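Ticket #4471: complex job returned nothing on first submit. Input attached below:
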Amino acid sequence: MKIEVNGNNIEVKKGQTLLDALKDVGITIPTLCHMEDVFPSGACRMCVVEVEGDKNLVPSCAVEVREGMKVKTHSPRVLRARKTIIELLLASHPDDCLYCERNGFCELQSLSEELGISERRYTAKKPDYRIDNSSVSIVKDSSKCILCGRCVRVCEEVQGVSAIDFVGRGSKSVVAPAFNQGLNLSSCINCGQCVRVCPTGALTEHSNIKELISALMDPDKVVVVQHAPSVSVTIGEYFGYKEGTDVAGVLNAALRKLGFKKVFDTAFSADLTIMEEASELVHRIKNGGKIPMFTSCSPGWVKYVEQFYPEFLDNISSCKSPQQMLGSVIKNYFAPKNGIDPKKIFSVSIMPCTAKKFEAERKEMASEHGVPDIDLAITTRELAKLFKMFHIDFQSLEPEESDNPFGVRSSAGKIFGVSGGVMEAALRTAHFLITGKEMENFEVKQVRDLEGIKETTIKIGDLELNIAAVSGLGNAKKMLEDIKAGKKQIHFMEVMTCPGGCIAGGGQPYGLDKNKIAQRMKSLYKIDKDSKVRCSHNNESIKNLYRDFLGEPLGEKSHKLLHTKYKKRKTNY
Amino acid sequence: MESIFAKYKNAGRDSLIPILQDLQEKEGFLSFDSLLSVSRFLNLPLSKIYGVASFYNQFKFNQPGKYQIQVCRGTACHVKGSIKVLDALKRELKIDAGQTTRDGLFSLEVVACVGACSLAPVVCINGEYYAGVTPDSIEKIIDSYREKKEKGE
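Support reply: We reran it on our side without changes. The output follows.
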């Protein structure tokens, strides 16, 4: 099919939206409310274009291409309309950009710049809403909200949670939970997808930078850090690296510059998680335990099950997440071994995730003396801010190794950062545990893409396992309903809360670009391909830890330090 | 509540507004707990239900007071200074429009034209109309209801 755009003929596919067709030929149309993979809402009108024969400008996100259509994308009339939309949004916007969390990363700010807005054409009363900082993960400032609805749609359509919606009407509309309650009382699972998709400073993570700086400066504290598998392939974006570049070595060096005494790798404890989780899977299958088993690494997913599907709580693996496992062995093994009082250790984690903040504060995640496994979880974005604040220049640093005994990882632990990765890592070890032999080809290709639901059957010895890797809780909901209805016989299901996995987590760089996420995925799989040790059970440091301290997977010490249990949680649904 | 739900067997989301109307008629307002029951009944998120309900002026989320005060903010009343009357009421009762005093005696509500423009500005309390109200006369009117309460009327 052909259409004419700005005087040139272009080839388009039938059924495409005009916006997508234009994108394919390299014409960028500004958008605000648009999100890929979500039904277009046409709410913001930023993407309007002129179509010959149509009286009004049309929103290109919601219009299908028609044969012979004549389109103008940047005519004076179109530009004026777009400019006016931004000017009207700015009329009631606080425009305190210099003091805003999103300064430099704000879509409203950049659109205003792109469209050449240089004066205040309209004035309206600035709203004066109270900031909601009730949640440990997310802060909501409705005065900066432009009501584009991305957060509402991602929460409802992608995650199936619907913690928030539009409340009120007209100029008094806000996005909020029911009865304008705080997010902490709502059914919010802390995943932070709303934060990642928010175009302005209305939704941000609950920042813990201040606490971290105080801890780093406290001479009585031994501040140690771990960084999650997906962080090394995203943080580079803030420091001039191409998307997806793995900067693990430089990240280690930079973290030491900040003053961390030890830099550990969460991929190490991902290996540890696999040792426990694969053993648990084998144990469940051999002993008629509860099947399907679900992974437990993703704290948004865990809270989702606690709230909405408590009948499946026993299906969730009892393994703590890698963050918590590492936190636990740092305080219970590393500390005594090095003659450090565990109470003096301040254990920090760098996570792609806002829900990890919630997980770190869970009562289940503390020793019997009330010492928490993790003292502070911060996001990739917060870490980037911290590096900037301390003027640490990534480009001038030489790569360094992370610290022993929790610094060496297999690449199985590293692919935890992508949807399907935990599954693959677990299968490699389960195969070894069941057959005593290594898997022939380590790669489980069927779970390696950005699809939301990936199902396959694999053979381990004489055992046939139905497995599924799911990301995005809306997809998880579908699977749970099918399992409940007996439509699906699954043995093992990996669930990651965020679509695509941690590489697109709620604590990762802002923005909606799916191509970036694909690059991050590629990067993690490349690391795996190039790696010598590709199985958790072949990680020498893991073997040492079991020999030296833990004994065996699912043993008494593991049970006490690395496993937990979850309870039904009341929710407003 | 059960009696209302019984009327809507196998209802879907399109029955939400009629259910809310019935609920409000029965209980006088929409409480958190009753909306939570609606949410479970219709299998709709509470946020969605509150989103719909808060869109419409007809729905109230606070228990109405013993005396329900309506301040007319129609055109004629506006011209005759009803905004000052409303402010005086807020000051006297120490609540905002849409709220109920802590003792449960008064609730304050803003309404559009009540159709008594010749009497502007108009305040209506439990169906009784007060004509040509001024900010200065508010205290006396409110006090008369406080006395009523004292006398147990």
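Chain B has a mean pLDDT of 93. Closing as resolved unless it happens again.
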